[in-house]
Specification:
Length: 633
């Protein structure tokens, strides 16, 4: 795909209309905006022969246009990709002056297109991520209009014309098979196909004369009593009654008119008199909004104006939207969110345009759900139908906890996992961000986080030391464990066991906690009492050993001094608070004496240690003395 152009409001058209002397009309049309969506050049007299478009569930239009007189005629596709308008060639096309494609969209968002393919056969293009092209019928068809619609059961209906415009044909695709029939007695050139409330087709066609053909469930019913009309278009109201916009074809008046059959007889109304100038117009379409108001998009050949009419059967207003060069502007009208959308082609500027009164609506995320994962992670997910489409460009989602924004994520995501939460209650909501605007908040999703402490903690005396072990809590967010003796932190470790070699004789209480995400500590595990009895020999030795350091705190080094009152095998070692040995300073047999040495704050590999509390331990056989020192940088 090649990006053809950007999305902008064409304010120059407003100035042009002022000079045309249509200020009173313009005041009625101030809410209209006009956008250039694609550069489409070359066609019959520089014109696009016809265009049709549909909306997807997000409100983005998908526009198909047909170029019959290019050196290589093409069916072209224009859509909004979230940031830009994109235009691409779908398939080579056949030669036809008045041909317009027929377009529909199914419940899965797949596109269905009927068009005049090379060889003048009926072509069908299907898009579900990639284009599939097939020929529907093997007869040569007219160069005039063909139409397509997709019903609520995703069945595709196509009305088209056989060669010489005297053979109305109808095709349905059911279970990947085309069912084709010729409708005898109906007019040739197809103007419209619409479905009623029971998904039964109604077809407006002409030549010879105008006929309204519909399937009543058993047979085709053909009405040939329509008034003299030029180009026309059909819509059905909420009671399945036909409503037709058309150019009057008699007496040289060339008015835009409207007819309806509400009470068994056709009734006609003049909407815009003298809109044509010595010719029958080719471009008008009618649609009905949710309030029952009818909208007609049409081209006033006498002044080269794109116009819009709206109202009811006998009460109409008209307004000017744009001025373009003479000839066929390929007008198409649709209703979305109860607003009219009109596409058309400007021959001189070679632009496909989109005009609408719709400025976009912010939609709010819905069905927010919060699910606790891994003890203290939360998975948030929600639904969001971005009703804004191209006119309110969704850029981000914002996540709030108790009204405070905690995260902003791309619009492509409707799920987010928040990791590493502390124990407590949380109340989440989500908003949608459209540029500088923000939607209302979604529903509230509440969760409670309980950090799980280690379980089944045990402590036992082994060889004058205390051996501790425990069960790890569920989840993987535990960073390490903290072991306490008599409310004092003695060891930090990543293992589920440890050995306390520094406990003195007496009654001690042990427990362990878990630290989640290096930040949040759990409540204590169960407690275990240990009555540690040290031998008389151990008391004597440890009582006669003296150990100290100066300065404390220190940076970058400290002097460690100790006194031995009798000879012994001595180990002087440095530990961190996790119980890991980082430096061995002495490991030899020493005579009774005073000793001192310097620790420079490095481990056994010569690496400088970070600031913190360190333990230094003096051991003689079974006995030991331990002290704390503080390295400050």
């Amino acid at each position: 795909m090649k990006i053809r152009g950007s999305f902008y409001i064409n304010f120059s058209k407003v100035i042009t209309l002022l000079f045309l002397g249509v200020l009173p009309v313009l005041l009625l049309a101030q809410t209209w905006s006009i956008y250039d969506v694609a550069e489409l050049s070359g066609g019959y007299n520089g014109s696009v022969a016809g265009s049709e478009f549909v909306f997807d569930a997000s409100g983005n239009p998908h526009i198909f246009s047909y170029h019959p007189r290019l050196s290589s005629p093409q069916l072209k596709y224009t859509c909004w990709d979230g940031e830009n308008w994109i235009t691409e060639d779908v398939a080579p096309a056949g030669l036809g002056i008045n041909t317009a494609p027929g377009v529909g969209i199914d419940s899965d968002g797949n596109l269905h297109v009927a068009y005049l393919m090379q060889g003048q056969y009926l072509g069908y293009a299907f898009y579900d991520g990639e284009w599939t092209i097939e020929q529907v019928d093997n007869i040569t068809i007219s160069s005039s209009w063909l139409r397509l619609v997709v019903d609520e059961n995703d069945v595709t209906h196509i009305a088209y014309t056989g060669l010489n415009q005297g053979n109305l044909r109808y095709a349905r695709k059911i279970d990947d098979e085309w069912q084709i029939e010729s409708i005898e007695g109906a007019g040739g050139t197809v103007c419209s196909i619409v479905l009623d409330s029971e998904d039964l087709p109604w077809i407006l066609s002409w030549l010879p004369g105008y006929t309204l053909t519909h399937w009543d469930g058993e047979a085709w019913q053909i009405d040939t009593t329509l008034p003299a009309m030029g180009e026309s278009y059909l819509a059905l109201d909420d009671q399945d009654r036909p409503q037709i916009s058309y150019y009057y074809a008699g007496e040289g008046n060339y008015d835009l008119r409207f007819c309806t059959k509400n009470s068994g007889e056709w009734v006609n109304y003049i909407i815009d008199p003298g809109v044509q100038q010595n010719k029958i117009g080719w471009d008008n379409q009618i649609q009905i909004d949710d309030d029952g108001i009818m909208h007609i998009a049409y081209f006033a050949h006498n002044a080269c104006l794109i116009k819009h009419a709206w109202g009811t059967a006998d009460n109409w207003e008209t307004e000017v939207l744009d001025t373009i060069d003479m000839w066929q502007p390929a007008i198409c009208l649709n209703i979305y969110n109860n607003h009219p959308f009109i596409t058309y082609h400007d021959n001189i500027e070679e632009q496909l345009r989109l005009a609408t009164t719709y400025s976009g609506e912010m939609s709010t995320p819905e069905n927010l759900t919060a699910q606790v994962l891994n003890v203290n992670d939360v998975n948030l997910f929600w639904d969001h139908n971005n009703q804004g489409g191209i006119f309110m460009n969704l850029t981000n989602y914002r996540i709030y906890n108790y009204g405070v924004m905690i995260e902003e994520i791309p619009a492509s995501d409707t799920q987010y996992i928040i990791t590493g939460l502390d124990e407590g209650d949380y109340s989440f909501r989500v908003t949608a961000v459209y540029g500088d605007s923000e939607s209302e908040m979604s529903n509230t999703a509440e969760v409670s986080i309980s950090l799980i402490p280690p379980a089944d903690f045990t402590a036992e005396i082994e060889g004058g030391n205390v051996y501790c072990q425990w069960q790890a809590p569920e989840g993987t967010n535990v960073s390490l464990y903290r072991v306490y003796r008599d409310s004092e932190l003695i060891i930090q470790t990543e293992e589920v066991e440890c050995l306390d070699e520094l406990a003195s004789s007496g009654l001690h209480v042990y427990w362990v906690t878990a630290l989640y995400n290096d930040a949040y500590e759990t409540a204590p595990s169960n407690e275990v009492e240990i009555n540690l009895v040290v031998s008389e020999d151990q008391n004597e030795v440890s009582g006669t050993m003296q150990l100290s350091n100066f300065p404390n705190p220190f940076n970058p080094q400290t002097k460690i001094s100790f006194l031995l009152t009798k000879s012994a095998d001595v180990k002087l070692e440095i530990y961190n608070l996790k119980g890991q040995k980082i430096r061995e300073l002495v490991s030899e047999h020493l005579q009774a004496s005073e000793y001192s040495l310097i620790w420079d704050g490095r481990n056994d590999r010569g690496k400088l240690m970070p600031s913190g509390i360190y333990l230094y331990s003096l051991k003689t056989g079974e006995h030991s003395v331990i002290r704390k020192m503080n390295l400050l940088k």
